[in-house]
Amino acid sequence: MTAVADPTTDLRGPRAVRLPSAVSVALARTSVELKQFFRERDAVIFIFAYPIIMLAIFATVFGDTPIEFGPGDEVTFATYFLPGMIATGLLLSTFQNLAIGIAEERDNGALKRLRGTPMPASAYFLGKIGSVLTTSLVQVGLLLVVAATMFDVELPTDPGRWWTFAWVLVLGTASGAICGVAFSSIPRSARSASAVVTPVVLVLQFVSGVFFQYDSLPGWMQDLAAAFPLKWLAQGMRSVFLPEGATAIEPTGSWEHGRTAIVLGAYLVVGLVVALRTFRWRRRDDG
Fold this sequence. Notes:
The chain is mostly helical. It has one domain (29-280). The chain is 67% helix and 3% strand. The chain contains 10 helices and 2 strands; from the N terminus they run ααββαααααααα. A two-stranded antiparallel sheet has the order 1-2. Helix 6 (159-183) runs antiparallel to helix 9 (229-241). The mean pLDDT is 86.
């Protein structure tokens, strides 16, 4: 009798299973992070609406009162505070969102379970960064539309200013995200995360000139703000939306683009080093 080959048997031997690339896994993780983010409707509303509401408050309180930087250089309060609202929105989307969110994932055991899967650790972090970059772009886009249509803020037409906007946005988002990952190891539990992170965010907003004209702050407060990235993120955004005459109220009389890039880049590198050395996948009481 002639033996009939089993069609389920591969006579060529076992096939090598092709694992997905790190990029595809990171993209898949980004999609998961975005779905989880948008399911938290209260957080979505707060993060997206907060800078718009604050801009509306400033524009309503101060109306069309101009801020003068020199002969022929004046803007409305809405225009002046728009860069600060963009900066503080990015701070919420990146640093605060990740510092609190990761602490909660660690506390409820989600990080421990993820660590036990074949997913590379890098895919988890790239997914977080991809998620906050996407939400930051949506948030900033909404803010610019509202500012232009409801408060008559004139958006720049010079391509060079939009190039500055792009690199400040990307570098600020990346550094804020990495610092949020690093800071997430400080809260001891999910219940304490908001209490630990929120005061830091509020203090940075007040000392960095987000809610006030930066030159009206005391000298010691300006020096304190210069040690943190939010001040440089806001200053970089001011260089995009304010006239050149506005450099008169900056501490050095210039936009300091080089120093802005150095400070944001330094926080990105230092935050990455700290995150790699201190990040924990388990709760403190879980070994």
